Amino acid sequence: MSLEIEATVKTPKIVLDSTSGKILLAGISIPEDPYDFYGPVETEIDSYLKNPAVNTNLEFQLEYFNTSSTLIIRNLIRKLSNSSRDTNLKVHWYYEAYDEDMKEAGDEFKKLFEELDFEVVEVDEFPIN
């Protein structure tokens, strides 16, 4: 089971590879209707969590996201962290070196989920893969 959604001008690339346990959100997240866009992602994650990989790597490589996406991101991290007894969850929040706003956002999420293995990682450019 896998899900891949290509990025658009307003929505991020999303990859959920249930075999490797990798979940990636990359790009810009300003969808018109975030619940409509992220609904299939949530459904796929619910399915994944019924039989998760030993290790789950949640990667964020976001350039920008709006307020409604903040709630989606928080809920996604919360859902995965609530299942962390079934999988070893590691969160990687990548931000580009010049982007203080994205660094601050990552730091805020890290503080909110202080019980998680959560890294805020500076990169010269995103390693999207």
What does this structure look like?
Strands 1-2-3-4-5-6 form a six-stranded mixed sheet, covered by helices on one side. The protein has three helices and six strands. It is globular and about 40 Å long. The chain has 129 residues and is α/β, with parallel strands linked by helices. The mean pLDDT is 93. It has one domain: 2-Layer Sandwich (Transcription Regulator spoIIAA). 36% of the residues lie in helices and 34% in strands. β5, α3 and β6 form a beta-alpha-beta unit.
Which characteristics define this entry?
single chain; 129 residues; alpha/beta; Transcription Regulator spoIIAA; 6-stranded mixed β-sheet; 3 helices; 6 strands
What's the helix and strand layout?
Layout: E1 2-5, E2 13-17, E3 22-29, H1 34-50, E4 55-65, H2 67-82, E5 88-96, H3 100-112, E6 117-123
Parallel strand pairs: 3-4, 4-5, 5-6
Antiparallel strand pairs: 1-2, 2-3
Helix pairs in contact: 1-2
Secondary-structure-derived class: alpha/beta
- The value of Rg in angstroms is 14 Å
Report the uncertain regions: none
Strand content: 25-35%
Question: Helix-strand pattern, N to C?
Answer: EEEHEHEHE
Quick check: average pLDDT? 93
Q: Can you tell me the CATH topology?
A: Transcription Regulator spoIIAA
Give the strand line-up of the largest sheet.
1-2-3-4-5-6
| N-to-C span | 18 Å
Total helical elements:
3
Helix content: 25-40%
CATH class reads Alpha Beta
Tell me about the largest β-sheet: 6 strands, mixed
Number of strands: 6
Shape from CA axes? globular
Domains counted in the coordinates: how many? 1
- What is the CATH architecture term? 2-Layer Sandwich
